[in-house]
TrEMBL record:
InterPro entries named among the record's database cross-references: Spore_coat_CotH_CotH2/3/7
Pfam families cross-referenced by the UniProt entry: CotH
Keywords annotated in UniProt: Capsid protein, Virion
Stored PANTHER family: INNER SPORE COAT PROTEIN H
Top-level taxon of origin: Bacteria
Name recorded for this polypeptide: Spore coat protein
Length: 355
């Protein structure tokens, strides 16, 4: 496991930690494997900014790109006793054919103070596309719960703008594509909706993503914690997951979730409308059934869990912010595998709802 060494002035470090709700970035130096990089660094995330163990957003300055990356995210994984739910989720989405960021566990030190185990996550941006030889395209982040594909907020009030809930990460051909998508979702009648959606969204990839969210039981994933990519070659939207520490049987606070908490149909306006269409509903059923039979099973996930635990375990006790016992960490393997087995059985029984 690599160690990231970050150096910055004491004044700048104090500024970051005293102004946790402000989007402040300071100059710093990052060293990895004896290679040094000039960076900007700021805090990231929302729920965990008050915690002692912070999550960070790194932007490379000199050089501008490092192994094809301009940005990386360092997640503290503070409320996840396994320290692996995010990575397990991203790897799972990649397995089933959904665009998802790659990630790896690292150790972090800031000004010679050991900060513990982190998950380094690649940014979903234009450079993500280049590294995978994907066509250029606009990228939008779903930055709050208003990104529910509706004209109304989750509280039921009319949005001020179609773009409420979204932050533009990279603009390639203008935001009209996203506005058009939202108009179709919210205004087209049932008889025109199914046909028109084929022209604006990759339906199969959306349903693969939906199945992934339903399996991993990420409650926030339907109206938050995702990115939209408009593929300039196909002219279709694709969707990618983000921030999945609240998954695999626990919520974002690390508390266990009931198996029934996330329904098989998921929730958000787009999903509801797609599953009203008989063709798309049956497509989703087949996709989900295949995933439940081949991917979302203990025998597929167990080797990944064991590989991550093997890498993390030698450094586990050194993390100054982990206040639970090593036994708790080890037991998460059993917890996650039992969740998969029970959730799989539950969803298999629920497939009848989609017939």
């Amino acid at each position: 496991m690599k160690t990231f060494f970050i150096e910055m002035s004491k004044k700048d470090l104090k500024k970051l930690h005293q102004n946790i709700w402000e989007e402040i970035y300071v100059d710093a130096l990052l060293t990895i494997d004896d290679k040094r990089y000039d960076i900007k660094i700021g805090l990231r995330g929302n729920q965990l900014r008050k915690r002692k163990k912070k999550s960070y957003h790194i932007i490379f300055q000199q050089p501008y790109l490092v192994e094809g990356h301009h940005e990386i995210h360092l997640n503290a994984e503070y409320n996840d006793p396994s320290l692996m739910r995010n990575k397990l989720s991203f790897d799972f989405f990649q397995q089933i054919g959904v665009l998802a960021p790659s990630s790896k566990h690292i150790q972090l030190a800031i000004n010679d103070k050991y900060e513990g185990i982190y998950l380094a996550i690649e940014s979903f941006d234009q450079y993500y596309l280049k590294r995978r030889n994907l066509p250029e395209g606009s990228i939008y982040y779903a930055t709050n719960d208003d990104a529910n594909f509706s004209l109304y907020t989750p509280a039921g009030t009319l949005k001020k703008s179609l773009m409420d809930g979204y932050t533009t990460k990279y603009l390639f051909q203008g935001a009209e594509h996203l506005k058009k998508l939202l108009v179709i979702i919210n205004t087209y009648p049932k008889e025109k909706f199914g046909e028109e959606m084929r022209n604006v969204m990759d339906i199969e990839k959306y349903l693969l993503w939906l199945a992934g969210v339903v399996c991993t039981q990420n409650f926030d994933g339907f109206i938050h914690n995702y990115a939209l990519y408009h593929n300039s070659k196909t002219q279709l939207f694709e969707i990618s997951p983000w921030d999945y520490d609240g998954s695999w049987g626990r919520n974002l606070h690390g508390e266990p979730l009931d198996l029934e908490f996330v329904p098989i149909r998921g929730y958000n306006t787009l999903t509801a409308r797609l599953l009203e269409n008989e063709q798309y509903k049956q497509m989703y059923r087949k996709i989900l059934e295949k995933i439940l039979q081949e991917y979302f099973i203990p025998s597929n996930i167990q080797p990944q869990i064991e590989e991550m635990q093997y890498a993390i375990l030698p450094h586990y006790k050194e993390d100054p912010y982990i206040n639970y016992k090593k036994k708790t960490f080890k037991n998460e393997k059993t917890f996650i595998l039992q969740f998969i087995e029970k959730r799989n059985r539950f969803l298999m029984e629920q497939l009848e709802i989609l017939t």
